[in-house]
Amino acid sequence: MKFLPNSADIPHDLIRSVGDGEVVFLCGAGVSFNSGLPTFKKLTDDVYATMGESRAHEAAEVIAYEKEEYDRVLRSLEKRTLLHGTESRVRVAVAQLLKTTGGADLGNHKSLLQLSRDRAGRVRLLTTNFDTLFERAALEDAIVYESHTGKSIPRPGGADDFGILHLHGRLEDRDLGLKRSDLILTSADFGDAYLRDGWASRYIEDRMRLNTLILVGYRAEDAALRLLLETLDADRDRFRDLKDIYAIEKSATGSASLWKAKGIKPLEFSDYADIYATLSEWARYAKDPAAYSRRGLEEILNPSG
Q1: For 12-35+106-297, CATH number?
Q2: Is the pLDDT of residue 304 over 60?
Q3: What's the number of CA atoms in the CB half-sphere (13 Å) around residue 256?
Q4: Nearest 10 degrees: CA dihedral of 112, 116, 120, 121?
Q5: Which region holds residue 85: left if phi is over 0, alpha if psi is between -120 and 50, else beta?
Q6: The whole model's pTM is what?
Q7: What is the pLDDT of residues 188-211, one digit of tens each?
Q8: Fewest beta carbons within 10 Å, which of 60, 92, 236, 253?
Q9: Where are the domains of the chain?
């Protein structure tokens, strides 16, 4: 189904699954771009500028940066600038740069909150973003929500399995009364969450057994998504009962092949604006399918209004 002329063709089964509360949207930094927040690359650049540091003479950081492995860049920067017994300057800078203020465009967040619901109609949205823009969007639209982060996220399938779920941590938001948590920011953090401790890997595997996932706001080669995507791919090889995973993304050379190589079904658009326009239209449909279809029929029968 095409919600708009420039929309990708959204499978009817996927639309039905969203309506039945069987889908969880997993949202990345791209969702917050129109709200004024940076990409991981821009965030990395801004951290250096805020700290007054340079990677010019640090080969490890230069090489990782050129490979777009920004989690490894920040790990090296944090390691060489951290003084014993003090707070990480890297994390202080990140909190400062991603601080949420009023007046941001939250249209993308509101659409995704409408689409990512459980069977009871409660918000159940997963994000790797640290910011609290989803919470602020929910407040603006008078949506009741819970906010959970890191290891405190309710286990998939449990009685409390709903809310805005920050897989990689959450920043403080005093206006909303939300405390900060530990952040999965650097390669060391990713290694702990997905490999050594492995709690994030276990969570994603359990989530895949219960729900279809739709990724929004990521590229197939995003550094922040590397271990998560590898986890998804490895799990699909081992367990045949896992649900489908889709990625909504702007088409680029070879991008569809990259997604498919990871066992993910791409839904590609020609432009980011078309992605979020489609999500907005899809959200209108999901809110009241009968009324949406009725309006569409009226427009066909009476195009002049």
Answers
A1: 3.40.50.1220
A2: no
A3: 6
A4: 10
A5: left
A6: 0.92
A7: 999 999 889 999 989 988 998 999
A8: 253
A9: 12-35+106-297, 40-97
